[in-house]
Amino acid sequence: MVADAHVRRSLLAGVLLIAHWVIGATTVPEPSWLWILAAMACVIAGWHPLVTSIHQVVARTLDIDVLMVVAAIGACAIGQWTEAGILLFLFSLGHGLEGLATERASSAISALAELAPTEATKVSGGVEERVAVSALAVGDIVIVRPGERFPIDGAVTEGTSSVDQSPMTGESVPVRKDPGDECYAGTLNGEGLLRVRAARAAGETMMARMARLVEEGQANRGVAQRLTARFTRVYTPIVLLAVPAVVGGLMLAGHGFDDAFLRGMAVLIGASPCALAISTPSAVLAGIARAARGGVLVKGGAHLETLGSLRCMAFDKTGTLTTGRATVRSIECFDGTTRERALAIAEALDRHSSHPYAHAVRDAARAEGTPRLEPARVTVVPGMGVRADIDGHAYALGSPRIIDGTPLPAPVQDRIDALRAGGQAVALVVEEDCVIAVLSFEDLPRDGAAAVMADLGRSGIVRIAMLTGDAPTVADRIGAAVGITEIAAGLMPEQKIERVRAMRDAGPTAMVGDGINDAPALASADLGIAMGARGSDVALEAADVALMGDDLARLPWAIGLARAARRTIMQNVMIAMGVIAVLVPLAALGDIGLGGAVVLHEGSTVVVAFNALRLLAWDRRAA
Length: 623
Description:
Blueprint: H1 2-26, H2 35-59, H3 64-77, H4 81-113, E1 119-124, E2 127-132, E3 141-144, E4 154-158, E5 161-164, H5 166-169, E6 175-177, E7 182-183, E8 188-189, E9 194-198, H6 206-218, H7 223-252, H8 257-271, H9 274-293, E10 296-298, H10 301-307, E11 312-315, E12 327-333, H11 339-349, H12 356-368, E13 375-381, E14 385-390, E15 393-398, H13 410-421, E16 425-431, E17 434-442, H14 449-458, E18 463-467, H15 472-482, E19 486-488, H16 493-503, E20 509-513, H17 519-524, E21 527-531, H18 537-542, E22 545-547, H19 554-589, H20 594-613
Parallel strand pairs: 11-18, 11-20, 18-19, 20-21, 21-22
Antiparallel strand pairs: 1-2, 1-3, 3-9, 4-7, 4-9, 5-6, 5-8, 10-22, 12-17, 13-14, 14-15, 15-16, 16-17
Helix pairs in contact: 1-2, 1-4, 2-3, 2-4, 3-4, 3-8, 4-6, 4-9, 4-20, 6-9, 7-8, 7-9, 8-19, 8-20, 9-19, 9-20, 10-19, 11-12, 19-20
């Protein structure tokens, strides 16, 4: 890796400096050629900063490398080869450590994508064959044997096993997989043989998307990082102009040129914000990498900062606070429609939907063996349902709003009212604007959701709300089960946006959701958080953070990590600014020499880099 080579060159320069010191301390008289060792250290450690500085001067974007190179050249000009070597050695080592932090953050993610095998065992017509994973198509059946990694994202069609999903979700124990359960590329199969139907192409697996999004996110700078970069660009030329003024002032005060020049170089080193420049990016990258290893995808530094400052959170209900594994409780038919026909129509309309109720419809249709119908011109109506043509007739499936305000027949309305009074959700099957069936669903709260809500309160979240398009009775039942008292039900997507915007008055607000209809609210919140495994592609793209294992317990964990990253940034900034504030006056007054300024200043850069790297091993239990 580039950073490894950078560190190795720095260490080689360090070895030469140690040899210089040992020979000078043990040989009397000191050899006349000894300065050559320090000069070689300057060349080895200073080559990269010199090249970078030349590019910056040409581009007229002066940065910290220019300050360090100018100081080193000045020290060499007056014969201070050892001080120059120490300066460039520590400066180069600090840069190398920053690079290591960046590369470790990147490799921690890219290594995940490499876990997925390149070949898979495909089953076609009862015949098994080994094929390249890139050749698999959506719908293909693959066999995953015990001890093998899943080559593709998909759903189990046959078999039962436990699967180690820790690389993907951060779960510490294997998860049982039965027919219908989803599995992810790169995760490790346990003791059972599984048949899996591919749900995504090889390049679109959740693991591959994680790697891509983190790579993009690393280029997304946070507010603190942008301010630091802007500060150093303005600060650098100011320091370069101030140093000659210091030297000239000291000479006018009666100091000799050598003394004044050395003090000026010490001021230059002390005022250089090296540690400040790496204080934020190193912590941000380490935080993003640690989050991804824990099953939380943060798409950039700005989003990590926002995550650490959250005060309010709004949750969608279905698939977010609930399991999303709803079951069809009843099917009430009207106008002579049979149960089999109503369920077959519903299955056709919901065949490719990611909505949790769609899974319930497909499960029910599969269990009852309903005939397969082929829909055409399928159209999703956000917040309402889906429309399509089947056998030349127009059908719709969704909430009562799907019929565009047409009054419902009394028997249909009575049935809907009775079901909702019992806390069940309902969906209408509509043929040519006529309701032919009412389906009822029951969805259960996620295990541990109530504990998560309490944990969020302890994490500093002062306001938690549920925003759902479902009926008030259903929302109230789930809210009571998970411990949320602020509930807004029956909302359209635009109404969720209004609620989220109103919550932002109380502080930075996150919206947590999984469906297509949640995407506008996710985008309008200060921070959008998507349920990554079951969430729709639209929700994942609109969100700033994704919980890759659909584990709500990752939320307070991620907030704790983001707040730790914010604390680390503040610690690094205070260390960097504190060293500058101490070194500049000491150097100007001559109370610290060039060598001491070099050691203290570059030492602070090393401290800042190591402090940021601590985030890669962050553990909330130990925090």
